[in-house]
Design brief:
Helix content is 47%, strand content 13%. By secondary structure, the chain is an alpha/beta fold. Strands 2-3-4-1-5 form a 5-stranded parallel β-sheet, sandwiched between helices. A 3-stranded antiparallel β-sheet has the order 6-8-7. It binds a DNA duplex through helix 14, strand 7 and strand 8. Keywords: ATP-binding, DNA replication, Nucleotide-binding.
DNA sequence: CCAGATTTCCATAAAAACTAGA
DNA sequence: TCTAGTTTTTATGGAAATCTGG
């Protein structure tokens, strides 16, 4: 795992093993810092699964970068290993509900991860089946391959339909599964999420609830140190780790952000051919980090959403104030011209309105409906949350 | 046939401007 | 002059229809 071949060894003085700085990197047991209580809570809830019994369904709350996904993935892989010793087979599916935002897609994804076509002779086509057929196949796969299936639903609050929670959390009692059982781990950033749930779902999904608190400054520093093996000996200057930690602390102790910044700092040192990673690199890395999350979001968006955003960014730049609002019609007119530029046909206004509200949902823009009075009707003000220049860069980058 | 994307159609909200009544 | 009620307007957003790729 951690012995990737270093083909450019002599030239690459900065990184020894960059994988350690991948946020999704699963550290060894002793490398999850400051989450001991959370891990044992989770382990407790999952425990029955290792003996082939139905685990407790869990709902995990916490702000971004508090280790929710990491701990969930970690504890489930541990559970799989432990279960093997008891001759129990556990299957784990990790569904990112931000990507798989509908019930069907989520079930499809879970099925795909748990499946092994040669063994089960069940195929999970990318599309074309009814939702219920995806469910049927999922149940069959679980029944044939596993004793217990653990399904992690990351960012559950982003899913449009509550039905999947109902189906999964009650699969056993409703007799969909005969020889197996299912456990659900729901992860959400919103503490309020539970309130929006149907009573029946609440009672079955929320058997256990845990809140992950933000890391404090000391823990962030520890996390960074534990991952500094990613760098060669002595490459990190003394001030670097504290400086990164300080930046992350400003952001409610977001460990993901801290790790990203550290990685970018290394990359910047590398690009500039420096011997060491300096505090200066960290400051530049901070800026790059702010851009990168946005760029990632944008690059995953459909092309027309990018054009709408581009139109908004251009219009915002044209206007005087920094956060000048743009009306939907202004944006739509420019969007149409951008489509002509790309010689593709434009979407209709109604669809663009929906795209704008999707962008609002992703916290890329803010919307406010305004009324102008008699004879003037109403209009929507859309304003970019981030710097238009950054948006434009992100739009162009992902062509 | 299915889900998901897009289009078509249309009732509606809200507040300044206008009107009638006091 | 002040008040209460009515008019006017348009983008919005819900719902249904239609299209598309598999």
């Amino acid at each position: 795992m951690s012995d990737s071949m270093d083909y450019f060894g002599s030239e690459n003085e900065i990184f020894r093993n960059k994988e350690l700085l991948q946020v999704s990197h699963l550290p060894d047991g002793d490398r999850i810092i400051g989450r001991e209580d959370e891990l044992s809570d989770l382990a407790n809830a999952i425990k029955p699964a290792t003996r082939g019994n139905t685990p407790n369904n869990v709902l995990v709350y916490g702000k971004t970068g508090t280790g929710k996904s990491l701990c969930s993935k970690f504890i489930t892989t541990q559970a799989v290993e432990r279960a093997e010793r008891n001759d129990v087979s556990i299957g784990v599916a990790y569904v990112d509900c931000l990507q798989e935002s509908t019930e069907t897609q989520a079930v499809q994804s879970a099925g795909h991860q748990l499946n092994d076509q040669p063994e089960t002779d069940i195929s999970i086509p990318h599309s074309g089946l009814s939702t219920s057929e995806y469910y049927r196949r999922l149940w069959r796969i679980i029944d044939t391959r596993y004793d217990v299936a653990l399904i992690i639903l990351d960012e559950v609050d982003k899913i449009e339909d509550d039905d999947i929670l109902m189906q999964l959390s009650r699969a056993v009692e409703s007799g969909k599964l005969t020889s197996s059982t299912v456990g659900v781990i729901g992860i959400s950033n919103k503490v309020r999420y539970k309130d929006s749930l149907d009573e029946r779902i609440k009672s079955s999904l929320c058997e256990r609830e845990y809140v992950f608190s933000p890391y404090d400054a000391t823990q962030i520093r520890e996390i960074l140190r534990s991952r500094s093996d990613a760098f060669h000996e002595g490459v990190l200057e003394d001030g670097v780790v504290p400086r990164v930690a300080a930046l992350a602390a400003r952001e409610h102790g977001d460990a993901r952000k801290a790790i990203d910044i550290l990685r970018f700092a290394g990359e910047i040192a590398e690009e500039n051919d420096l011997e060491t990673v300096t505090e200066d690199c960290v400051d530049q890395a901070h800026e790059r980090e702010e851009t990168s999350r946005l760029a990632e979001l944008i690059s995953k968006s459909p092309s027309h959403a990018k054009l709408v955003l581009e139109a908004m960014a251009l219009l915002t730049q044209q206007k005087e104030g920094d956060d000048a609002p743009v009306t939907t019609n202004e944006a739509y007119d420019l969007y149409k011209r951008l489509c002509e530029r790309d010689q593709s046909d434009h979407l209709k206004l109604r669809r663009v309105r929906d795209i704008l509200s999707e962008l609002e949902f992703l916290s890329i823009i803010e919307q406010e409906r305004k009324w102008a009075g008699k004879g003037k009707g109403n209009y929507m003000e859309n304003r970019l949350i981030d710097d238009p220049a950054v948006i434009l860069a992100a739009c162009n980058e992902s062509e």
